[in-house]
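Is this the right way to post structure tokens for a design question? Let me know if I should format differently. Anyway, here goes:
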């Protein structure tokens, strides 16, 4: 005969012991309605009302550790970091399967996108601590810029695809203050080229949604670090394709005050694919969101 057990059958000390051994993410995180500290992480896009997670709440989740070394964001530095994998955080928040994309927004409105396939391949980690300290405390001791309150790293990263001169890029934003839970349909739908698209346009689309979308917006989708919107890029590609291609390769060759980094690995075919994609975008109505 199967016997049903509950915690009420156990002595009090056993209940405490069992509770301490349960996985941290078995108890879902609860968003608080207001921010109480600059370190509170904003979370939006859920079926729940937008809210905030404290650093203490994030530290109660299972932590992953790795070493940051030879990272362009931290030149000449090597250090240990720890934090929460995005898939662990999604489980703790009770994110439904249909919400298959997380994006991280930074203080400068740069935005990195993590669709489910990227998360499954690369297991990005939201970093909470550097050498056991908060990013701000570590930065002060190391006499370097503060990458916090949060940033993203990977324990191991191997590019999973190559499209012309574009290799699957690590998404490693710093100064992350907000996570938005969305879907690939809601995020990539507004920037999908009108069909039927050519192979060249599809290649440009693959590159644009991983690279360009970080700084350029279409409606509420994408980053806002640049004031050039998706439709503006389309208009430039349509009316000045040569300048558009040159700008992708080396922005200051077209505009000496440009702050966008160049893409020296993008050969002529890669730039032509991006140009063709944005020319296709110029043919459709802008998204009103």
């Amino acid at each position: 005969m199967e016997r049903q057990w509950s915690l009420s059958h156990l002595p009090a000390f056993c209940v405490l012991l069992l509770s301490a051994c349960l996985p941290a993410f078995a108890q879902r995180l609860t968003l608080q309605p207001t921010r109480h500290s600059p370190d509170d992480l904003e979370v939006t896009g859920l079926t729940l009302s937008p809210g905030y997670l404290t650093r203490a709440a994030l530290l109660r989740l299972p932590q992953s550790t790795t070493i940051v070394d030879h990272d362009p964001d931290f030149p000449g530095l090597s250090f240990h970091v720890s934090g929460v994998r995005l898939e662990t955080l999604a489980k703790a928040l009770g994110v439904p399967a249909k919400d298959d994309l997380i994006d991280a927004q930074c203080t400068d409105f740069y935005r990195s996108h993590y669709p489910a396939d990227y998360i499954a391949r690369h297991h990005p980690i939201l970093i909470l601590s550097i050498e056991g300290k908060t990013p701000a405390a570590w930065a002060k001791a190391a006499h370097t810029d503060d990458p916090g309150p949060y940033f993203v790293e990977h324990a191991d990263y191997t590019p999973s695809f190559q499209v012309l001169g574009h290799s699957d890029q690590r998404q490693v934003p710093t100064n992350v203050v907000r996570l938005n839970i969305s879907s690939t349909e809601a995020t990539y739908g507004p920037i999908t080229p009108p069909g039927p698209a050519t192979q060249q346009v599809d290649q440009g689309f693959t590159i644009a949604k991983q690279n360009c979308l970080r700084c350029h917006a279409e409606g509420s989708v994408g980053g806002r670090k640049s004031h050039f919107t998706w439709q503006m890029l389309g208009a430039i590609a349509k009316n000045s394709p040569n300048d558009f291609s040159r700008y992708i390769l080396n922005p200051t060759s077209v505009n000496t005050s440009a702050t966008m980094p160049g893409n020296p690995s993008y050969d002529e075919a890669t730039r032509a694919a991006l140009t063709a994609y944005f020319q296709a975008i110029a043919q459709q109505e802008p998204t009103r969101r």
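Format looks fine. Someone answered above. Worth noting: The radius of gyration is 22 Å. The first strand starts at residue 41 and ends at 44.
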